[in-house]
Design a protein that fits this description.
This protein has 190 residues and is α+β, with helices and mostly antiparallel strands. Helices cover 16% and strands 51% of the residues. The chain folds into two domains: 2-40, no CATH class; 51-177, Lipocalin (Beta Barrel), CATH 2.40.128. Strands 5-4-3-10-9-8-7-6 form an eight-stranded antiparallel β-sheet. Keywords: Signal.
Length: 190
C-alpha cells in the first residue's frame, strides 16, 4: 500500500523536460497536444539584419575575407577586404519567409591592366549568388553555404564555384570601434 501511495505521489508531480522548458504532468493532462498542434507551432526565425559579418569566400584555391553589414532594407554595405580590390560593389540579401534559407547577391566591378600596354586598362564585373542556411549560437548568427556564378550570363544556369561562411562580428566590431560604426567602404552602385 505504501508503494502505491509513493507511486501515485511521484506520478502526480512528474515533470517532462522538453526543448521548450519543463512541463508538469498536470499541465499535460489539462492540455493534450496533438500532432496537429505541433504542426501549427512555429519557431521564430533567426534575425540576421543590422549586423556586421566577416564573409569568408573560398573559391578554387583562393580564400578572401570581406567585412559586410546586412542592412534592414535588404542591401549590403561593404567594408575592408583582403581579396581583390573592387572599384564598385553592390549587394542585396533575403531570407525565404518561414525558413532560415539565406540568399545574397553581390556584384563587383574591377579594373585591371595598364594604359600604354598592348592590353590597356579595362573593367570587368562579377556577380556571385551566396545560398546557405543560418544558424544561431547565443546572440551570434552564422551562415554557411555555396557560391554560384551565372553561367554564360544567364541567372537560370548558375554554376557552383565555391563555398562561403559568414560569421556575426557585431559584438566584436562595436567593442573595438570606439563608437565609430562606419565600414571602410560604402556600397556603390553601377
Amino acid at each position: 500500500m505504501l508503494r502505491f501511495i509513493i507511486s501515485a505521489l511521484l506520478i502526480g508531480t512528474m515533470s517532462v523536460v522538453s526543448g521548450f522548458g519543463v512541463v508538469s504532468s498536470r499541465a499535460i493532462a489539462q492540455h493534450r497536444f496533438t500532432s496537429r498542434d505541433a504542426r501549427s507551432m512555429k519557431l521564430f526565425a533567426i534575425r540576421c539584419e543590422d549586423k556586421y559579418y566577416q564573409l569568408e569566400e573560398m573559391e578554387d584555391k583562393e580564400n578572401c575575407t570581406t567585412e559586410l553589414y546586412l542592412k534592414g532594407d535588404r542591401t549590403v554595405e561593404f567594408g575592408d577586404t583582403d581579396g581583390p580590390i573592387w572599384t564598385e560593389a553592390v549587394g542585396s540579401w533575403q531570407v525565404k519567409p518561414g525558413t532560415n534559407d539565406f540568399t545574397m547577391v553581390i556584384k563587383r566591378k574591377y579594373q585591371t591592366g595598364r594604359d600604354g600596354t598592348d592590353m590597356g586598362s579595362f573593367d570587368f564585373q562579377t556577380e556571385r549568388t551566396f545560398s546557405g542556411e543560418m544558424t544561431q549560437v547565443g546572440a551570434c548568427v552564422g551562415i554557411t553555404g555555396v557560391v554560384h556564378e551565372a553561367d554564360n550570363g544567364s541567372p537560370l544556369q548558375e554554376e557552383e564555384i565555391g563555398f562561403f561562411n559568414m560569421i556575426d562580428a557585431t559584438d566584436e566590431r562595436l567593442k573595438n570601434s570606439g563608437g565609430d560604426e562606419k565600414l571602410g567602404k560604402s556600397a556603390t552602385s553601377y
